[in-house]
Every structure is written in structure tokens, then in C-alpha cells.
Amino acid sequence: MSVEIAKAHSLQLDDYAPILGLPEIHELRSLAERLKGRSVQMVNSTAVGGGVAEILNRLIPILSELGLAIRWEVMTGGNDFFEVTKAFHNALHGGAYEARPQNFEIFQRYTEQNRARLTLDSEFVVIHDPQPAGLIDARANHSGHWFWRCHIDLSQPNKTVWSFLEPLVSRYDGAIFSSPEFARQLSIPQYLFYPCIDPLSEKNHDLEPEFVHEVLERFGIDSKRPILTQISRFDRLKDPLGVVRAYQIVRRYFDCQLVLAGGGAADDPEGGVVLAEVKEAAGPDPDIHILDLPPWSALEINALQRASTIVIQKSLREGFGLTVAEALWKKKPVIASAVGGIPLQVIHKHTGLLVHSVEGAAYQIRFLLANPAIADRLSQQGHEHVLEHFLITGNAKRYLTLFLHLLDSGQPADA
Ligand code: UDP
Hints:
The chain has helices at about 15-20, 20-30, 50-65, 80-90, 100-115, 160-170, 210-220, 240-250, 270-280, 300-305, 320-330, 340-345, 360-370, 370-390, 390-410, and strands at about 40-45, 70-75, 125-130, 145-150, 175, 190, 225-230, 255-260, 290, 310-315, 335, 355. By secondary structure, the chain is an alpha/beta fold. Strands 2-1-3-4-5-6 form a six-stranded parallel sheet, with helices on one face. It has a six-stranded parallel sheet with strand order 9-8-7-10-11-12, sandwiched between helices. Uridine-5'-diphosphate binds next to helix 3 and helix 11.
């Protein structure tokens, strides 16, 4: 399936000039000059939900405006496929997993189906994450430049799953990781690309205070009392139960509310079960707001982040955690687990606070609620940090420089 990005995203590169400065925009245009008309395909496993879809939704229009002939393909699969790939995902993040031969067969079967369905004949092909990694089989006679963009933390992968994946990954021309910590011993070159947010997307652009207020009213949230928020898919690795427990500790000292907002992703079949667990843990507390949001809730999420007193990201494992960058961009104090790519964003006591446990999270929430001046300083510094490192234009620049490097390296693609 090719994804057509809605025309509502009619943002132009020039719109970013007030944020980035014109020289940055000129640099992007001049880097793209020699890449005009070059074909690129990006492939992932969902068009909605989760950080990868969030990035591609904005990266692709930007690279397209810069003149690249870019297409976004989504791998399709049945529930059996996504159950297997979600289990692989958890296992690659280091979770225990008893892989059975039939799991690998399911993976191979859908890879084969998608290989037959998709025409991956572009000069540059970027395959995102493990689900479509097997599509390297679709590469004809070593044509094109093929990259595997891994968005997950591979520092301690389950050995069985990684030994299945590694031979596939090794056939790419390079692998791109989100943090130096995630790099593996591989026979191919490895690159570091930070994930990124779009400051002008519906998820992140400025909002009128009236709209923020209206969203709080709609969800029955009191704007006068502190609001603690975690925005995440209902996924055990995001530790929503840990967030509820941290809030319950804080609640003994502060009259505050908790918002847990998240929807599903098409490639994540576990959401419903986890949501039910969270509702049960929350019990009848009217100050816990569990919001199961549809995929078109970018403005609502933006408003909830802006309305928050503190944003929490208590993940047990994390690839990067775009929600952290989103909150920092909105100048929100962030308390987040020191896992995966989060420490790249939250520099302890400089751009936020890192925690290692439920008790630690509760302690730091209490600390920031009691010290708003410190919270303000952290959030201001957090915003600057995102401006410097984690905006979509920086990510576009990384891709342009990679593609230019390949053109100049004397290995022209045959495609
Ligand atoms: N998100 C969303 N709706 C939800 C939950 C999350 O739009 O109900 C967004 C969130 O704002 C962020 C992305 O999905 O942009 C999640 O990316 P992240 O890297 O935090 O986690 P992932 O889901 O990829 O593990």
C-alpha cells in the first residue's frame, strides 16, 4: 500500500524560517539540488500510530518539496504477522521470548507476500524497523542503495530473534540507528540519525489557550489543579501501570490529576489488553483520566501536552520516545526513565529529570510540583535542546547528506 499524505499538510519549507533561520532552509535547498528527481522509497509497517509513522508523515512531504521523487510504502499483514512482529519487537528490546519455528515461518510468509506486491525499484530504499527487514530479498541484482533504519533499542536483543534478523540486516548497504548505544557489531556501515519532531505539525504547533481549555473541558479535566500526563500507546513497555502507581504515591501529598492518553497503532495488537489492565489499576479514582484516542487526535494530544504541569514518560524500554521531544518542545518539565533514546533528550537536571523506578518517578514529580521555578528552567533548556537536535529539518538533512555521499562515493546505483 502506498501512503498518500493528506494535502492538509500544506506546509512549505519557508514556513520553518522563523524557527530555524533562513540559512538553514537555504542549506537544505542547496543540498537537495543534486538529488532532484532521484527516486526514494521508504517502507514501514503502519501509516498511523507510533513514532515512525509520525516522522514519515512529515519527512516525506519535506523531501518531496525539495524535489526528490519519494514514495512511502506500508507493509501489510494479518493479525498473525503483527502478533509475531510485536513479540519480536519486545524481544529485540531485551524481553524474554520463546521463539518457535512457526513464528519465523509467519514472518517469512508475509515478507514473501509483500515482496510480490511491492515494486521496490528506487535508487534509494529505506526500510524501517524489523517488520519489513526481510524485503531486502526484493532487491534485484544488487540494484539501488538499501538502508535499514532501526528505530528500536538493540543494545540487548533476544539472541534467537537477533540471530534470525542479523543475516538479513547484513545484506543492506548500511544500518541507521537512533543512538550510538544501539549500534551492533555488523559487517555494514552504521549511521546515527536522531528521530525528530515537526514543530509546525498539528501535534506540535502553537495553540490558542481557548482551544487547550476546550479540550480539557471535553475530557472532564480540571484546569485549576496540576495535571500529570503520559501520552503513549497502551503498551507494557511504556509502563502505564508504573505511572499510575507513581501518581498514587504523589497523590498522598498533592491534589493532582493523571492523564494517560493513547491510541493504538495498526501494527500493535496488544493495545486493548493493556488498556484494560490500566483501567483496572486506576480503579474508580475520578482524577485519573484514561483516554483512548483515535488516530486523528494530533490537536488533542498537542493540547493535553500543553495543558500538563509535568509530562511523564516512564518507559521500561524505548527506541527514542518522540513524546519526550514533543513535550520538551512545548516547554514542559519532563520526568522520564533513563532508557533507550530518552537520555539523549533528557539530560538529567539540565533538560528534565531521569528516573529509574516508580518511587523515583514519584519523588521527582513531588520535587517539581514543589519547585516550579526549577521546572521552568528545565523546560526552557529542554526546548533549546530540541531546537538544536531533534527537528524534522535536521533529519531531512541527514538523509540528503547520506544520499549525496552515496552519489559521490562512486557506487552509482543501477536502478
Ligand atoms: N501518539 C499519538 N496518539 C497516541 C499515542 C501516541 O499520536 O494515542 C504519538 C505521539 O504523540 C508520538 C508517537 O505517537 O508522536 C509515539 O512515538 P514514540 O516514539 O513516543 O513511541 P512509539 O509509539 O513509536 O513507541
